[in-house]
Fold this protein.
Amino acid sequence: MSPLKKAIAIIRLNVELNARLVKYGIKSYRNLVEIETACANSGLILDIIKPLNYPWMLPISILQDGDGMSLKHPAIDPDYARQQFPELNTSDKILRLISSANTCLDQETIPKLNPGEARSRATKIAIYIHLYYPDIWPIIRSHLEQIPEPWHLYISAPTFICSPTIKHIINEFPETRVFAVDNSGRDIKPFLKIIKSGVLGQYDAVCKLHTKKSPHSSRGNKWLNDTLTALVGNENTIFNIISRFRSSGAIGMIGPKDFLIDQNHKLYNTMNSASIKQVRSWLNLPSSAHHPFFAGTMFWFNPKAMTLPDDLEVEALPFPIEHGQADGTIAHAFERLLPAYVANQGYSVECATLTS
């Protein structure tokens, strides 16, 4: 961002904050900040029709008059809100909104991920999806129909994604296993968690996907569609990729060629130098280990090539509060270093094309 744009953003933010202080008074303003902090810590992000779309803008929407308000992502538990903000004048409304939206992934009807579960060893292919945007599922579903052999489906989703989509998925694919995660680390943190769980170890190949929208980029939809075409575009594409893994135990990862970014590209290091250095230390990855990465972090991989260090504690990693960052987080650093990690393990990283 240019210095001028930064200055404009700061001015606009200060005008907004001062307007809120005048409107609500110091006491209510303090209560709002407490709620917004809790929202941010919970990973709550809402679409807000305002120039500045940050977590701390949320209570403006909640405090608006009129019925019909609904939280798209109800991350705050009503009991928690009641305990934390008993004196807030609008707490009843907030609790009502949250309660109306809270059904959740902890229901007994949801088949949970169980690392000790004995699953059919005859199934050698798995699909792992981080389902942040449930409305993208039909697009991915249409591609999965092309898989030419039995497969298991694993889904991670933030705890507040309480969507009928998940029930529909389970009804159609009863063998699906779902695990709820906190909304931090994008698709990377839950991916690291499922890798550490060991449940993917029985498969010859696993396809890692997520419901990518990239609201910061005008190419978001094309990015997703082209990636899906390269990885699961049709039966021949999928068959060829799976066959490559089975014919050579040395292949560790296959990703979309059109989204392979070289380490000398500006997208590799822009805002990421410090976080890349940090992630290297966690992965025990030497500074000399470099490899182009697949932008978007969607690829097929051999689980044996993705065995993480025993001392890597995923929950302890300092993934930042989620507020739509386009770059510079440790999730972005993992995105850039996973192919290098696979290569450093002694496996090759290869490409799939849109016509493969």
User: Anything to note?
Assistant: Residues 3-101 form one domain. The longest strand covers residues 152-158. The CA atoms of residues 40 and 223 lie 28 Å apart.
